[in-house]
Design the sequence.
């Protein structure tokens, strides 16, 4: 009797909403065909992939974890792993707070036109590709012909090897990254700030709160959930790596700090024919990223934030 | 209710448009292949017409078939033609159809992403019936994975003209060049090399006008070369500014861009075996003496004689620009690099510095006092037929047809008055305009079995060579003499090595790192840096490769 009523309710519900489900079917089909079916190729990580046989007909590797073993015993892999972690952590440390600070500063500007102008100038570098940015970096920082070093030479100083000394390279890499992306990420925070109820500021004004007090007690709490969501998403990428940035920036002098997982995969896997090894490294990287994401999300929820789902 | 109806209609419309999309694509396929089907049906008709004219050929001519042929797309500067559809491809297509009854489609593969694109085509089973690559390693990879057709059974039946043209293998007495890549154990042949008419490899170039200004002779020893560079630096004969002058430029590919200098330090008394076994992916790093060459370069670097930005040059562009703008005193490269129209080093330099002169020199003597240098092996680019090919015989008939002198000769020199003019019965290349412009020198990308001009008369070869450049012929003759003098041919061992594929890229990159770090090291740290780099290099796969070479060496 009870079951029947549940079924009946479901029927009624479906009768009312089936068109919505039907509309969902297409995006779902898209995700399955283009997102989930290709994932079956992950099996490549456990096979001795032969390009002429295809993924399915290639034999399983013996032992099954062969490619993982090969990756984990490779010095170059751990070097790339360490660099990925190091560069991304530094990026997070310096790159993450910058847009927040910038958004707070921009928000305090009174002249709207000036604010708009500053904002535009700051986010334009985002649209430059890394190839171009690295070209600019070379023009500016090359030891003999770079503008900076030419100026240094004018005042009689020794050239600084920004691009070819390990430590300086890392600094250049991080600074360029922050410079390129900080303006763009500011947009999200500015949007969040716009959503804060202006009455709160008025009330604070009445209570005689100073500018800094208002920022601290109204603006920052107002965008806290946005900050947390972006932080979680950034943590999810801590071991992920874009390829264009390190690939465009690196040179043979700084491989010890410049080689990251994506460039390692490209070099050893794609160019070196080791597709199975590449798949294994990629799978490992994805799993670590998912773990980071889930942990960060769980921690955020523990502290009373909404998280990302 | 109305809203519901609307949503249903919307959903239906979406479904239809999506399914319609799929369907129309399916329908597209026959449409795109139709033209070729048309060709297939009309072609035999053509053939019958031909047959009436020349009854003798009718029996020989097999049924009409089609093949695809890889062609490099060099994507070079404007004014060039579509590599798959131009005067020369049309000439080939028409003539092959008439004489072989084969329909040819050219498939463009980027010269600069050759490996990646070929990999995709091979993995998808859609690689052209005739493929070519300069990478022997790539072929070894395909071979080991079972992706290539064994050509051995076809050599005598299908490739007699090619066999004759390639001739005997001078590096392996008693064998034919066509069998160069034969696997000794099984007799299989998975790829066939092209013949290099010209085996000159490296040259050292220097600014003669600078030397003249300083009253210095052309360097004839390493010391004189070094002294000249020091004079370039301290006296700035070009007047470009002492902080700007670059006495010697190179790129990250140090082992190439300093080849004649570095290789002259190698122990000249090495045995054939020692040399062959320890040369890994064409790098000489492990050969006794090479380290001293790098130490010499390190000394030059620390004295400010070497371009101190070389480690940032991933290709030739930056160093080319330095040469063209007249800042560079000397460099090492391909034997004719300065005189080629592309990148046009001398040509563009003369625009900037009208009285500049770049000449070739031969100063680097080895321990025996001989200016020994590497020259190329006579076997050049390799072509192969993928296992996925459905028309192996057609592909080979095409190649054999192309190796006939009259066919390759026309493709190499083109039409008189357009791409060449005759001087003393020897063609001289002239810059062509319009549709008959060649995308590669002597159409090397079409004439896949030959590298360098063959005019059918060996005595006139050097004249033909000199005339194939747009610069003063004497420069070419001198360059050729300098590059060939005391040339040491590559050591060829008829052993089948397993593919170094997994290691090649890593070793290439680590080799560049090794060289960059060693050249730029402080002199007192040089040994430490070099030894650490070599250790890493050995551990990254070089040791395995050496072990295999040791084991498979055949005297």
Sequence:
């Amino acid at each position: 009797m009870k079951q029947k009523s549940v079924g009946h309710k479901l029927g009624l519900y479906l009768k009312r909403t089936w068109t919505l489900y039907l509309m969902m079917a297409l995006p779902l089909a898209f995700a399955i065909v283009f997102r989930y079916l290709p994932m079956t190729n992950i099996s490549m990580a456990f096979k001795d992939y032969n390009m002429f046989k295809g993924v399915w007909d290639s034999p399983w590797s013996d032992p099954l974890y062969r490619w993982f073993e090969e990756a984990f015993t490779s010095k170059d892999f751990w070097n790339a792993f360490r660099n990925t972690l190091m560069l991304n952590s530094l990026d997070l440390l310096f790159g993450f707070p910058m847009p927040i600070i910038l958004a707070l500063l921009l928000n305090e500007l009174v002249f709207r036109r000036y604010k708009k102008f500053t904002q535009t100038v700051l986010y334009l570098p985002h649209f430059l590709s890394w190839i171009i940015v690295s070209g600019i970096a070379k023009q500016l920082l090359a030891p003999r012909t770079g503008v900076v070093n030419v100026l240094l030479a004018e005042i009689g100083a020794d050239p600084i090897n920004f691009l070819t000394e390990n430590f300086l390279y890392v600094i250049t890499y991080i600074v360029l990254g922050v410079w390129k992306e900080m303006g763009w990420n500011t947009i999200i925070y500015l949007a969040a700030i716009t959503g804060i109820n202006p009455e709160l500021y008025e009330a604070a004004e009445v209570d005689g709160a100073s500018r800094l007090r208002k920022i601290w007690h109204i603006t920052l709490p107002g965008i806290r959930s946005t900050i947390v969501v972006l932080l979680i998403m950034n943590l999810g990428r801590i071991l992920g790596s874009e390829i264009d940035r390190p690939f465009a920036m690196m040179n043979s002098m700084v491989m010890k700090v410049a080689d990251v997982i994506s460039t390692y995969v490209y070099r050893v896997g794609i160019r070196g024919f080791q597709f199975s090894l590449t798949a294994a490294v990629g799978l490992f990287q994805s799993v670590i990223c998912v773990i980071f994401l889930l942990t960060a999300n769980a921690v955020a929820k523990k502290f009373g934030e909404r998280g990302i789902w | 209710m109305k809203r519901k109806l609307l949503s249903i209609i919307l959903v239906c419309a979406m479904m239809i448009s999506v399914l319609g999309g799929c369907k129309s694509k399916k329908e597209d396929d026959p449409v795109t292949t139709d033209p070729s089907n048309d060709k297939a049906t009309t072609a035999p008709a053509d053939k019958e017409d031909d047959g009436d004219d020349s009854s003798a050929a009718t029996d020989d001519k097999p049924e009409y078939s089609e093949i695809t042929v890889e062609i490099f797309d060099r994507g070079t500067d404007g004014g060039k033609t579509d590599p798959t559809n131009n005067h020369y491809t049309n000439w080939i297509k028409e003539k092959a159809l008439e004489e072989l009854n084969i329909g040819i489609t050219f498939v463009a593969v980027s010269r600069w992403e050759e490996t990646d694109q070929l990999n995709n085509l091979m993995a998808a089973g859609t690689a052209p019936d005739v493929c070519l690559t300069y990478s022997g390693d790539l072929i070894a990879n395909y071979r080991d994975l079972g992706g290539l057709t064994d050509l051995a059974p076809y050599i005598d039946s299908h490739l007699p003209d090619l066999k004759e043209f390639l001739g005997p293998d001078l590096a392996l007495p008693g064998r034919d060049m066509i069998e160069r890549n034969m696997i000794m154990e099984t007799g299989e042949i998975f790829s066939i090399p092209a013949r290099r008419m010209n085996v000159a490899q490296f040259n050292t170039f220097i600014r003669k006008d600078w030397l003249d200004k300083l009253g210095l002779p052309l360097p004839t020893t390493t010391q004189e070369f070094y002294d000249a560079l020091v004079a370039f630096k301290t006296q700035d004969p070009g007047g470009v500014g002492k902080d700007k002058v670059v006495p010697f430029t190179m790129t990250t590919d140090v082992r190439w861009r300093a080849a004649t200098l570095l290789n002259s330090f190698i122990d000249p008394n090495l045995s054939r075996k020692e040399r062959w076994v320890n040369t890994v992916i064409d790098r000489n790093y492990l050969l006794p003496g090479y380290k001293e060459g790098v130490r010499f370069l390190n000394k030059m670097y620390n004295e400010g004689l070497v371009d101190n930005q070389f480690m940032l040059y991933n290709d030739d562009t930056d160093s080319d620009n330095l040469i063209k703008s007249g800042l560079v005193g000397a460099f090492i490269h391909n034997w004719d690099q300065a005189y080629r129209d592309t990148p046009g080093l001398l040509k563009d330099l003369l625009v900037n510095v009208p009285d500049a002169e770049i000449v070739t020199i031969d100063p680097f003597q080895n321990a025996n006092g001989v200016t020994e240098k590497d020259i190329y092996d006579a076997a050049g680019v390799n072509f192969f037929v993928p296992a996925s090919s459905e028309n192996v015989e057609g592909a080979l008939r095409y190649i054999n047809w192309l190796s006939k002198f009259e066919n390759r000769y026309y493709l190499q020199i083109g039409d008189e008055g357009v791409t060449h003019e005759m001087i003393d019965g020897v063609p001289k290349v002239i810059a062509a305009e319009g549709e008959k412009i060649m995308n590669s020198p002597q159409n090397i990308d079409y004439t896949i079995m030959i590298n360098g001009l063959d005019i059918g008369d060996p005595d006139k070869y050097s004249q033909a060579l000199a005339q194939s450049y747009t610069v003063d012929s004497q420069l070419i003759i001198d360059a050729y003499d300098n590059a060939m003098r005391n040339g040491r041919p590559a050591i060829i061992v008829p052993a089948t090595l397993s593919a170094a594929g997994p290691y090649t890229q890593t070793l290439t990159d680590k080799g560049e790192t090794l060289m960059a770090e060693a050249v730029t090291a402080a002199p007192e740290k040089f040994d430490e840096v070099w030894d650490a780099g070599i250790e890493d290099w050995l551990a990254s796969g070089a040791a395995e490769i050496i072990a295999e070479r040791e084991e498979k060496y055949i005297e």
